Structure formats: structure tokens, C-alpha cells
Prior knowledge:
Number of domains: 5
CATH topology of the largest domain: Rossmann fold
Number of helices: 25
Helix content: 40-55%
Distance between the termini: 90 Å
Number of strands: 20
Amino acid sequence: MQNNNIAYVSAEEVAKKLGISVRRIQQLCSSGKVDGAIIEGKSWLLPEKSVDSIPVRKKKAKVDRKPLPIGISDFKRAVSEYYYVDKTLLIKEFLDTKPQVILFTRPRRFGKTLNMDMLRVFFEKTDEDTSVYFSDKAIWKCGDKYRDEQGKYPVIFISLKDVKFDTWEQTFEMIKRLVRSEFARHEELATSSSLSDFDKGRYAEVLSEKSNENTVVFSSALGTLTELLYRHYNVKPILIIDEYDVPVQQGHSCGFYNEVISFLRNFFSGAIKDNSNISYAFLTGILKIAKESIFSGMNNLKTDSILDDRYSQYFGFTKDEVKAMLEVYGAGNKFDEACEWYDGYKFGSSEIFNPWSVINYVDDNCATPKAYWVSTGSNDIIGDIISKATPEIMDNLNKLLRRESVNTFIDIDVIYPEIEKNPSSIYSFLLVAGYLNVVEKQQDGDSVYCKVAIPNKEISYVYEKEVLGKLENIVPQSSAIAIQTAIFERDGEKLQAELRKLLINTISYNDTANESFYHGLTVGLCAAMNNYYYVYSNREAGEGRFDICLYPQADKLPGVIIELKACKGASTETLEKLANKAIEQINDNQYDTDLRQHGVKDVFKLGIAFCGKEVKVACGE
């Protein structure tokens, strides 16, 4: 019976308000879970004040799974059409300190171009209301101090990321096109009432085909454009140069290094060094190249590298960002796998995932992790270094492959010619290029001493395929073919003879060589067989970790497992025992388990023992 002092509502009204079925409300009432509910006829009435306390299992909100931004570096498209990881607080970090010129050095595919386009869209003064791209982002919640900077400046934006040509002539032609395109984007200068006829002529000169071969005109073009934009808008422009060092790397690889350095020195100097016509300048690249004298005398240049803290979380994904992405795409249970494959980078104090690889991994439904990053750029420079590597470096590369660490001095100002002349600088290059990670760091002034290691499984794969695979260049082709034939024919004696011949002819420092050195040499030999085998090194199988395993690419080929031993001052008899012991280790630890699980029925087992220039080989089935 109704209490006249209580306001009641029907079950139908409550169901509508709570977004659940009438039947569910009736069940709750009949089971006594709604205090004061009464039934009149066939309908339940509920006290209005009890409605908010009704236990409701709310449906999960439907998640809008936007496409993932693979290869998208256009900020407007990224935030409008794709899943976007908010990096807009980079803008706040910058505005809090306002360095006039800042260079961000990060590995390729870590979001540099997208972040630079974000800065362009945020700062650029246009007819479009670009605040809409930031109104729901973190930067917009930071207050008027930051919002007032939005849409305030003319911006010059040039990306050199695609300037990858084989000659200086082609490179210069592409740079001219990029400069002209940016001049044309600022077409308001052609008719500006704030510019004199002379200034308009300077603007037109860059666009004219008559200036095609005039290096001086294009060397000073950026400086000219900053000056003209300042006069037109009465606001000093912002300059953004993305991937500035791509032409430098290409010049080094293709033999026009001096030409590109000479041009870029003037190109950047006129626009950045002591230029009173700019508000700020942003540059990105992999290397700083300070010693190239491109930035010589630029006292206003601030460099932010992977060793620095301030902007460390804005290039690449943090743990929380990866967790959030995986949850959105229904793969929260894949976080540990994503960590094993794509985590492990340490930028400053931040733990960072490779964003390119994570996005591709999630886009592939997290089915099977792959080395997505390996195909995103050239590793020729690394091959050049390894072809000249000392035994110590070979040994350290193999330590890295075994997931051990290496102690080394790091120079973030490493330059391309120095890398080739001083192979020990390979660690600095590998670090800034994304192939190594800092485990520990000690810094004393300009000297940085680091413990470095391979960051994750993906980079281990890259080392095998792109780095250690370059070792094949060290091995004479005749030796590679002879050793390859011996393995195909399962001829242990021939293999032993050919290995000994190789050691005698190419090695002069074996007295101190250890197992790591021989491991590197053997991997190099196997790499020469990559048309027939997939080469894996130091991986778990059976009840341990094999040294080297060759997975056949064709059914007719046998799988090959190689276990290595090394000993100083060993006799021939001792070497034979070590080689046989290596075969026993393969059998006892069942290193052939993975091969057989993949349908490889025929497995050739090799135990190889080294001592200086001597070698013994034992074979097993």
C-alpha cells in the first residue's frame, strides 16, 4: 500500500532512467533489493529516493576504434581520423623554457615528423581556426598562457626526410624544390603592401627558373624568407627543419659528403645563426653533427638528445600509452609480449617503446610479433663499420647479441667520417640511431660513460639480419662457398680443413681470441648462406640456448645446429674432446627440439672447437 508521504515512480520510468530492462527492475524489487518498493496490481512502484541506490551493472561504453596512424605524419589527419597518442604537452615544455633554437635528436620512426607538424599547426597563423585540433588535448588544459600562443606566428616548415639521392646534383634539385614549395606556400608575400619592390623581387627570384643553378640564392633562401615574413606580419616567424641530417648521411654513403656539408652550413647559418628575424627554430635529426661545423658558432642552439630528461616522454610511447592503446583495441593481455619486443629504450629518465613497431603490431591484431622497424631505413653505414671492425668490436657485438651489456664512452656528437675512421665510435652511432639502449650512465662534464645493451627482441632480430649479417663481407667468397659446400655435404673433415685455412689466411690475433670472437666469425660465415638458411644465434631451445642454428628455407636442406668451444693452449687431443663434448651438449639439451617441431626431420649437428689457428670438428646426426 502506498505511503502518501512518499513519492513513487513506476518500474517503467526507473528502467528508462537507468538504461536497463523493466524485467530487471521487477526482479530486483521481488528479491527485496529495493527498499520500500510496493506492488499494485501487476506493477511495481519504487520510492523515488531509492532509485539512485539500485544496483546496476552498467554496459561497457562502446569504444570508437579509429584506424591506427601507420605512416601518418600530418597532425590534422592524425588527430581527426586516427587513434592519436597525445604528445601536445611537448608544447608546454618548450614554452616553459623558450630556447630560441632547439635540435631534437632521436632514432628514425620515433615520431619526430608528426611532432614537428604538431608544432607547425599549433603556432602557425592561418585563416583556419586551428584551435579545434587542440581543444580536447592536454595542452589546452594548461591555461591561457599557452592557449594565447596558438595561431600567433608565421611558420616556415621544411622536411628533408625524403632527400635520399645518389648524387649531389639530384640532392640539390630536391632541396630547391622543397624551398620553392615553401616559398609558394607563403604566396601572400608576392603582393604584400609591407614589402618593397626589391623585397618582392627577392621573393620572386627564388621561385624563378632563372635562379636554378644559383647556389647562393638557395643557400640564403631560408634567411630571406624569415626576413620577408617578419616584415609582412610584423611578427617574427618560427622555423622548423625536420630530419635535417638525411642528406648528410646520403652524401656520406654516396660520395658527395663535402658538397652537402658546404651547402647546408650556409643554408642553416643564414636562417639560424644570429638571425634577429626568427622567434624560434626547431630542428630534428638522428645525429647532432656539431663537429661538421654545420652549427659552428651557433651559441643559441640547444640540443635535446636521448640522454636528456626534459622532452624524453614525447618521442615514442610510454608504458601507460601502450597499455591504453592495447586496451582500446582489445589486446590488454598482450602487454608483456609488447614489452619483450618493442620496449626497453631509455630516453633520459623515461622508459620508451618504439612507436612505429607498436602501431604496426596492434594493427596486425597482435597476432605474431615481428621486426617492423627493420625495413624503415638504411643500415649501410653500420655495414661499412662492421666490415672494418676490430676483433674487440666483433667480440662486443656478439656479447650484445647474447643480451649482455658493453661498457663504452658515448659521444652524441659523433659524425659520419669519424664513424668510419674510428670503428669504436660504432657504439655511439648505434645508440643514437636506436640499436642500443643505455642501461647505466655516468657523466663527468662532456664525457659520458655508459653501459649499453640491445633493448628488446626486435632489435636482436635487426642485429642478426642487418648488423651481424654484414659480417659476410669479411669472409672471402671462396672460403664461404667451400665451407657452405662442406656443410651441405656433411663433410666434417672438409669443413675442418676449410675453417683452418680461413683462420690461417685471415686471422693474426688468435692467441687471445675467445669463444665470443669465434662465435662472431662463425655467424659471419653462416650469414653468407642466407639464401638457403635463416640464421639464428643464442636462442632458447630444448633445455638450454644453442650457439647457432640454421633453419632451412627449402625442405631438401637439413637443419644445422652448431655448438662452439674455445680454449687457449689446447692440444689436438683436447680440441677433439671439446668438439665431441659440444655434440654431447647438443644432444643432452635437445637443441634440435624447435627444428623438429617445425617439421625439420633431418638435422646435422656440428661441434667445433677452436684454439688459435687450430680447429677440430665433430659431427652428429
